[in-house]
Amino acid sequence: MIKRIVSAALIAAVTVTASIAADKISGAGASFPAPLYYDWAYNYQKDTKSRVNYQSIGSGGGIKQISNRIVDFGASDKPLKTKELMKKKLLQFPTVIGSIVVAHNIPGIADEKLKLKNSVVADIFSGKITKWNDPAIQADNAKLTLPDEKIIVVRRSDGSGTTYNFTYYLSKSSDNWRNHFGTGKAIDWAVGIGGKGNEGVANLLKQTPYAIGYIETAYKEKSKLAAATLQSASGKWVSAREENFKAAAKYASWTKEDNFYAMLALQPGDTSYPIVAATFILLPKEHVAMNKKVIAFFDYAFKNGDASAKKLGYIPLPEETKAMIREYWSMHIK
Length: 334
Known about the structure:
By secondary structure, the chain is of the alpha/beta class. The protein contains 14 helices and twelve strands.
């Protein structure tokens, strides 16, 4: 589990000390991996004197900025399919695997104590279940005293790869969700209040009794929030723990030919946590010189950043996947 999170001072050292124009490398996008990218950038600057500026603006913003060539690299938790990459003239590769938790703020109910079926999670976020003591929730929580209080749903207000992966999980868990809401970076929510970024959702959850929301694990730990125990694809109860994230991550299958496109929710195995996702970097094909600088940073991170990833609650990519990514770089960036 996570031992620490990047401090505000460290983030400031990486992102505030100079403008984007003054930085050698600029990136923007997903908030999901932001704590890790800040840490990698801090260590990279310390070791190489090269600065990397990363802005956590959400996957939608990252895709937009790299598509418009505003930054040197974009970051997205929603992988783009090859057809879209070709249209936008982009390259894509994963950097790390993380997890999304269903966090809650129910007074008196501790971390991992609340059990929620995947279909029940979908019914809560669709507005079908509105009270914490609803029979569908109570059925799996006989030992808990659930309050007769309205459930306050907290979700993202911005275009988000975290939302994309969470709604993909909900679509696989519920016919009602799939038919009425579907999968997307931004959807037409039936209920809830919106927060910007994982940071915004975590802050709202912490401040709002009886709330529930979805956030990347690092933000759950930083905010000291409780998370629900969910179901594996086989129906077994699994908590948001490192060993269960790893159990799901091992099923990730990547190919260079498909630009590493992969969705990882609800992987096989009794102990596989159901909401695991990779996060990706997008590069403009034509910016060869700058791309070489960007991949030098991520190659450094692949060689030196696994310890940081583990401490922050992420799952490092397997060495064979890193080797495949390096082959992809050599094929496309010459």
